[in-house]
Design brief:
single chain; alpha/beta; Chitobiase, domain 2; TIM Barrel; 2 domains; eight-stranded parallel β-sheet; seven-stranded mixed β-sheet; 33% helix; 19% strand; binds ligand TNX
Length: 503
């Protein structure tokens, strides 16, 4: 059968007569994009070993091309020509070249058997529907190793994932070193581990490790967007600096999951130097222009009972305590703006904004279905869709059986595949404010990298296709056939995968 079975499905494929054949994997003749070629070569060597490359044949030409080579003017575009005489890959940008190389990597992963490579001839022209094609990994509830994160990034790059949203802090652990606040990591990174009968667990990433991950991702044209969750989900901060809470504690780094009453005290001016120090750190370590401030699931009960918060409440002339969150959001967004960064917040940042409107440049990440994102674009804010009820929550079970790991809901491959970040109600202008979407892996019960792999793969493949490919050609039958071949490729990358029903 003559078919490429690429995921995400390319924009256009034109099959030609014959096959490209080679004993061993052909060398690349590089006239541009050396860095991208180097990563690709490493990837191939990691899978097939250094010997896999043919000693004689340089059958691949990688080149910087213009529109005379093909319709490749869009961001991340590439054109891949596979003809019996050789392979040519052209792009205008480094990112386009890298995406094209990943398509080629897919073809090699499935086309190289017993030392022989055979790929059907054809011409692929490709570009994405959305620029934001993300995966969020919660490294607070479970502390994933640097090695695991790199393995994951490398695997994600195969499906053209463009964003790694790194959830670095939460009630259950603080993973970011902040020089001026050493107790955040000294105390806030460790918690009691009931599951392991009373031992202590945790850790944090050093500055060097963070830089290493950022550059490893950048080499794969993946942008790392850090998240520091404020002002709720903050037990790890409070355990380290109890004075920043309303009651003064005692607090602990949480060893339960859930949503907790204790949040940062909105009446305590001490929270602002903390925010400044955190953002200075982020601005130094992360080149991304985006910083995620969390903002989800903030409880307001402590603020109601706190004298300092009540003083603030009166000074600000508020109608309700929830408005103090929007007051904080405005301050956070300004601090990030001062550092040349754009704020992202979970969709709660849209609420209680009567007195303190959401600043114009803040991006809303819609997780409680798509309503938040739809509302955001209706008021001219940009949005990223990650609806928990549309297959984007990878902590949900794959299918509805207690034998599957996961909690809170079901998110089938099918659902993620049919996710559409643009809702039927959106106008054209509103739709243009949708940056894309992402899958989130919350890790309350995902206590090993291997289990994370099982939750991510292959669901991320459906979501990657939903975010890259033309929505008009969606076809689950066709997708599931390609997925069967693609999962064998993922096996070669030694990823633990779910292999059951897809809907
Ligand atoms: C809600 S999604 C949360 C997380 C939990 C998740 C579990 C979001 C912004 N907040 O803190 O881990 O549900 O699915």
């Amino acid at each position: 059968m003559k078919a490429y079975t690429i995921i995400p499905k390319p924009r256009s494929i034109q099959y030609k007569q014959g096959n490209f054949k080679c004993t061993g994997i052909p060398q690349i003749n590089v006239s541009a994009f050396q860095q991208e070629a180097d990563v690709f070569i490493k990837q191939i060597q990691n899978t097939f070993g250094g010997q896999a490359f043919s000693e004689t044949t340089d059958g691949i030409t990688l080149m910087k091309a213009d529109n005379s080579f093909g319709d490749i003017h869009k961001a991340e575009s590439y054109r891949l020509e596979i003809l019996s005489g050789g392979i040519r890959l052209g792009a205008q940008t480094q990112t386009g070249a890298f995406r094209g190389l990943q398509t080629l990597r897919q073809l090699f992963l499935s086309g190289y058997q017993n030392g022989e490579l055979s790929i059907p001839c054809g011409i692929i022209e490709d570009f994405p529907r959305f620029s934001w094609r993300g995966l969020m990994l919660d490294c607070s509830r479970y502390f994933y190793s640097v090695e695991f994160i790199k393995k994951l990034l490398d695997a994600l790059s195969l499906q053209h994932i463009s964003i790694f949203h790194w959830h670095l802090t939460d009630d259950q652990g603080w993973r970011l070193p902040v020089k001026q606040y050493p107790l955040l990591t000294e105390i806030g990174s460790r918690r009691n581990e009931h599951r392991l009968w009373g031992s202590v667990t945790g850790g944090f990433y050093t500055e060097e490790e963070i830089r290493d991950i950022v550059s490893y991702a950048a080499q794969r044209h993946i942008e790392v967007v850090p998240e520091v969750d404020l002002p709720g989900h903050a037990s790890s901060i409070l355990a380290a600096y109890p004075g920043l809470g309303c009651t003064g504690g005692p607090y602990r780094v949480e060893d339960r999951y859930g949503v907790f009453e204790d949040v940062l005290c909105a009446g305590n001016d001490g929270i602002f130097p903390l925010f400044e120090a955190i953002f200075d750190t982020l601005a130094e370590l992360f080149p991304s222009k985006y910083v995620h401030i969390g903002g989800d699931e903030v409880r307001f009960n402590r603020w109601k009972e706190c004298p300092r918060c009540n003083k603030r409440f009166t000074e600000l002339g508020l109608d309700n305590y929830a408005q103090m969150q929007s007051w904080i959001t405005v301050r956070l967004a300004q601090m990030l703006r001062d550092r040349g960064r754009i704020t992202i917040g979970w969709d709660e940042v849209l609420e209680n904004t009567g007195k303190f409107p959401l600043p114009e440049n803040v991006v809303v990440m819609s997780w409680r279905a798509q309503q938040g994102g739809a509302h955001a674009v209706s008021i001219g804010r940009r949005t990223i869709m990650s609806p928990q009820n549309e297959g984007c929550y990878l902590d949900y079970r794959h299918i509805d059986t207690p034998e599957e790991i996961g909690r809170l809901g079901i998110g089938t491959i099918f659902k993620g595949y049919y996710m559409n970040p643009i809702t039927p109600q959106m106008s054209k202008d509103e739709a243009s404010l949708v940056m894309g979407g992402q899958a989130n892996l919350w890790s309350e019960v995902i206590y090993a990298g291997k289990i994370a792999e099982y939750m991510i793969f292959p669901r991320i493949c459906g979501i990657a296709e939903a975010l890259w490919s033309d929505e008009k050609t969606k076809d689950i039958e066709d997708f599931s056939k390609r997925l069967a071949v693609h999962q064998d490729r993922l096996d070669r990358l030694e990823l633990l995968q779910y292999r059951g029903a897809i809907q």
